[in-house]
Amino acid sequence: MSDNNDDQSNSSELSIENRQKWERVRGRLRAELGEAVYNSWFARLELESLKDGAALLTVPTKFLKSWIQSHYADRIRTRLCAEFSSLDHVVIDVRSPTRRARPRDAEIASGAAVEKTSPAPAAAIVERLEPQAAKAPMRAVARADGESFGGSPLDRRLSFSTFLVGPSNQLAYAAACRVADARPGEHPLFNPLYTHAAVGLGKTHLLQAVARSANDNKRRVLYLTAEKFMSGFVSALTQHSSIAFKEKLRNIDVLIIDDVQFLQGKSIQQEFCHTLNSLIDAGKQVVVAADRPPSDLETLDERVLSRFKGGLCVDIGPLDEELRMKILEARIAAAQEAQPSFHVPPAVVTYIAKTIVTNGRDLEGAVNRLLAHSTLNGAPLCVETAENAIRDLVRSAEPKRVKIDDIQKLVASHYNISRADILSSRRTANVVRPRQIAMYLSKVLTLRSLPEIGRRFGGRDHTTVLHAVRKVEDLASKDKSLSEVIELLKRMLAE
Amino acid sequence: MPGAGDARRGPAQLFFDLAGAPRHGDADFLISPANRAAHEMISRWPDWPDSALLLVGPPGSGKTHLGAIFARRHDALLVSPTDIPEPGALCGACALLDGLEAVTDETALFHLMNFIRESGGSLLISSRRPPSALKIALPDLLSRLRRAPVVEIGAPDDSLIRAVLEKLFRDRQLAVEATLVDYVALRLERSLDAARAFVRMLDEEALSRGRPVTRALAGELLQLIDASRGA
Amino acid sequence: MKVTIERAALLRALGHVHRVVERRTTIPILANVLIDASAGTLMLKATDLDLEITEKVSADIGQPSATTLPAHTLYDIVRKLPEGAQVSIEGSGEQGQLTLRSGRSRFNLQSLPESDFPDVTSGEFSHSFSLPPADLKKLILKTQFAISSEETRYYLNGIFLHVAEVEGHQLLRAVATDGHRLARVELPAPAGSAGMPGVILPRKAVNEILRLVEDAEGAVAIELSTNKMRFSFGETVLTTKLIDGTFPDYGRVIPANNDKRLTVERGVFREAVDRVSTISSERGRAVKLALSEGRLVLSVTNPDQGSAVEEIEADYDGPPIDIGFNSRYLLDIADQLDSDTALFRLADPGSPTLIQDRDGASALYVLMPMRV
Q1: Entry's InterPro entries (chain B) (predicted)?
Q2: Which of A131, A153, A392 is facing B118, going by the closest CB pair?
Q3: What distance in Å separates the CA atoms of residue A43 and residue A59, rounded to the nearest whole number?
Q4: How far is B140 from chain C, CA to nearest CA, in Å?
Q5: Staple partner for C25: which of A150, A485, B130, C30, CB 3.0–4.6 Å?
Q6: Where are the alpha helices (DSSP H) in C119-229?
Q7: 8 A C-beta contact, residue C8 and residue C87
Q8: CA C121 to CA C34: how far, in whole Å?
Q9: pLDDT tens for each residue of C97-142
């Protein structure tokens, strides 16, 4: 099968009668296969058109399409023919996820490139990661099925030279280097090498570094994400090219699979287990990574688990402060290459390293926020601006909504009067000014309308509030001590 | 689609829903201190700190409008939050996902973000709330969202509310007095969502009654809103 | 200037142009009509800056010249002159004064220079076509009643004219709506109209065109561009600016799947609506239509006055349904229909109802119900 239909607008509208028939087909499939199976595979299957004896069914993803074709095509055909008598064939296709869908050649070519340049597959892929790729317009593509089993692309930034080592990842780093540096033909020392860590601690970095380095070492490397492994495997099955698929696996020296916790489905796990066994038995190196130790991979097949446990299992722990500093400095230096004016004072680096303790990706997020902040404001960074820039990384909750009640209480206590005084109709100077300040803060810090604020201040008119707001604005612009008091009250309310 | 003025009960003339779609042109976007950073960051593409950028702001703050400007300028792919395409089906320069809070398939977004980063593309994501405040179950996804820089659209100031009210009336082709705009701006909650809802209500109520959009009618509706809040 | 002209010819021409002149205008020249005498023809022209009408009449021109005179005063003078009289207009020698003589009457009139008279409608037209007077009249008459009179909704203050393609046929459509009801009438598009921009013809121009088309003999020549439109009725030419707005996408309020069909005798229906709505204290109160098999019950309830009910025969075989409408709107539409029966197609009490003479009639009306 070649490209999908890239022009959905031609598909004829279904008549009400045909819609009902299609609903009956869905009902039958649901009854026959059970709720769980139906929901996982058929919930998003749509009858797109009926033309010239052909029914066009569509699903949102290629994976679904492959799966349905290989497992349920006959059943669907039988059910459809029972309802639509004139039907002679059924086509299942991927529907465009977006408004536009144009076939694109480059993607197909890059998939093919992996096969043609098998001596150095990683290098071939690395080329298309150069920044100029960013200029091509993005669009949905309909890709030929058999092409999809290429390696996953490697990020050129993720090499051993950019991997920063500390006590928490020392062991994993050493094991990865050992695997990458092995000579072609040398029997693997740790097989498989199983690395696990929580998100953002550098698993993928380490795996890609192994891929790149082993490839430089003249070994044939295939680096795959679990998702890529699944879609490649399924499409090989449906193309009846699983022999070629296995042949390809047999011809590599190092298989690297990232995020194995995403491996799902019985037949896929069986195939994975099979692949693992045959590669390990043939003395080929296997490297896998997951977000948890093998014993916590509940959904994985027992035989796969025991294979994992047979190799070396290393984890990457949380980053210590020294490593966090190193990572930050490296990130900042990388950002400075793109934007030389970006400068982060040492106090800010220390502050971030002490504050962001979670993982490397959050540290990257912090640098991204500082970069955005300094790009947009052009002002030098200080600890205070940094605190503001990264606050969403530190606090899980949004900044709290200030309430008029809180404003009244705080202002009253600051001026040593009672909240009742503020709400009262008293017009003595010691009450009037705090009341106006409280009204001003209510206008500025809450979204309430003027009439609403007036009501909350003892049922006053909105013009009174407006007068207070203007009065306080005017006074604060002339009186530095008052503007300082207002700033202090604002800060206290924000906390 | 027909609509009905809900502002009052009892017999009422129903009316056609003739209002056009809001205008999302570059010139229609009103820049103010609350959204200047977001607008500037969008305009700086591809000079972004990261492959993804998060645009965070409350409903009606102009996220969709900014997204539309971005998508039109750079021919971005529009990714539906409820139907995220398989990453293998994408490539290239930029994509837009409007409504992170509406995403149903977290794994699909995770794969998409990875793919876009790997292939050197950019993804603009809009969200009502920062990712850490959303209930994201997939740690891998959350961690990638947290890596992305955030530009926030803050609460609008009074001048923006006025400008937005004028734009909303213009979008609906309603010729109203400038004093009406001032009158409403002073008495309405300071949020763009409230402004949008109010202009719609005013337009529909006037249409239902066959009356012009006047300050008197606006005042009547504002009182109704106040009364329903107090109740 | 020296002009001599028959009173009847002058009155007819002034009758056409003087109505354009606003009664209360703050710009003095706009209160005047331009009079341009040259080579056997007298040309009259009036404008309110949006709408302009000119008319040429034969006259005996003694001395060619141009000037302007107060439009309504001039019209009233000529109107009061005896039938069959001759009128002469002559420069009095004094600057800014003209003398009008007829029989024993003599009027000295203050004039304003012709050079001050605004010319607001010059420019090119992109499309031109012609329509028989009857067709033009139909486009206007069938839709005019639905134009919105609410000034803040300027984009609805006129008739939308555009060319639509329906199943390969080009149709010229006129559409008007006030948000409560909509009227649409269509004709085969005349040659030359293809590709014309959709335009909104303002209410005032619509009223004047309707008067001029009554007197028209031959085909009306129509020219338009995106911002103005011209109608030529022989020697009378009306040029108008168009409404600078976007007419709504009205197609989405025309229901396509209303499946409940009601056919009534139009006259019987109209009279019944008129009778039961007598009980309403205010204009346009809701009349409730209760449909059931073979019959239609109309009722009005007014808490202050009482109630009224009338049952009429109807061709209806759908499920029973109650729906309310503004009685004024029902009467307006009943008056627009041409045939003896009226066909209603309904969906539910909250959705637009379609009303026509019969399926596929060239005019259709959509009416929003009232919540009762």
Answers
A1: P-loop_NTPase
A2: A153
A3: 9
A4: 45
A5: C30
A6: 133-144, 203-215
A7: no
A8: 15
A9: 899 999 899 999 999 988 889 887 777 899 999 999 999 999 999 9
Chain B residue numbers touching C245 (CB-CB < 8 A)? 173
* pLDDT computed for residue A252 by the predictor: 84
Which CATH superfamily, name and number, covers A120-125+151-315? Answer: P-loop containing nucleotide triphosphate hydrolases (3.40.50.300)
Three-state secondary-structure class, residue B121? coil
Distances, alpha carbon C37 to alpha carbons C60, C61, C160, in Å? 9, 6, 37
CA B29 – CA B23 distance, rounded (Å)? 9
Residue B145 is predicted with a pLDDT of: 93
Second CATH level (architecture) for the domain B156-230 = Orthogonal Bundle (1.10)
Single-letter amino acid code for the residue at C100: L
Q: How many CB atoms lie within 10 A of CB A462?
A: 16
Tell me the chain A residues in contact with residue B131 when contact means C-beta distances shorter than 8 Å: 392
Residue boundaries of the structural domains of chain B: 36-152, 156-230
Q: So what CATH class is A8-94?
A: alpha beta
Token representation of residue B158: 């009074």
Q: How far apart are the C-alpha atoms of A247 and A282, rounded to whole Å?
A: 13
Domain span(s) for CATH 3.40.50.300 in chain A? 120-125+151-315
User: Among partner residues B14, B175, B214, which is closest to C350 by beta-carbon distance?
Assistant: B14
| Nearest alpha-carbon partner for C372 in C276, C302, C294, C305 | C302
Query: What is the chain B residue with the closest CA to C284?
Result: B13
Which residue is closest to B5 within chain C, CA to CA? Answer: C371
Q: How far is CA A122 from the centre of its chain?
A: 23
3-class state of residue C218 by DSSP: coil
Mutation site, B40, B146, B225, interface A, largest A CB count within 10 A: B146
pLDDT at B93 (0 to 100):
67
* Residues of chain B positioned with their CB less than 8 A from the CB of C350: 2, 4, 14
Structural domains of chain C sorted by starting position, each given as residue range(s) with its CATH number in brackets: 2-116 (3.10.150.10), 127-252 (3.10.150.10), 255-367 (3.10.150.10)
- Taking the CA atoms of residue B130, residue B131, residue B132 and residue B136 in that order, the dihedral angle to the nearest 10 degrees is 150
Query: Which strands make up the sheet holding A312-315, listed edge to edge?
Result: A221-225, A254-258, A285-290, A193-196, A312-315
Q: What pLDDT is stored for residue A130 in this prediction? A: 29
Put simply, the answer to whether C179 touches B16 (Cβ < 8 Å) is yes
Q: Was domain A404-494 assigned CATH 3.40.50.300?
A: no
Please write the tens of the pLDDT for every residue from B142-158: 999 999 999 988 888 88
* pLDDT of the residue at A131: 30
A446 assigned binding-site residue: no
Tokens of A284: 């080929």
Torsion angles phi and psi, residue A256, rounded to 5: -120, 125
Report CA torsion sign: A49, A54, A56, A57.
positive
Mutant choice from B1, B173, B214 vs C, greatest count of C C-beta within 10 A:
B173
- Sign of the CA dihedral with C198 first, then C199, C203, and C205 last: negative
Let me know: does B85 contact B16? Beta carbons within 8 Å.
no
**DSSP H or E run through C188:** strand C181-188
- CATH number for the region A321-394 comes to 1.10.8.60
* C368 interaction partners in chain B (CB closer than 8 Å): 2, 13-16
The residues of chain A scoring below 70 in pLDDT are 1-13, 16, 34-37, 39-40, 63, 96-151, 237-242, 245, 396-400
Residue count of chain C, please give it: 372
By Cβ distance, the residue of C150, C154, C253 closest to B18 is: C253
> In 3D, which of A40, A39, A29 has the Cα closest to residue A266?
A40
**Check: CATH 3.40.50.300 for B36-152?**
yes
pTM: 0.65
Alpha helices in chain C (DSSP H): 7-17, 71-80, 133-144, 203-215, 266-276, 327-336
Residue of B nearest to A144 (CA): B89
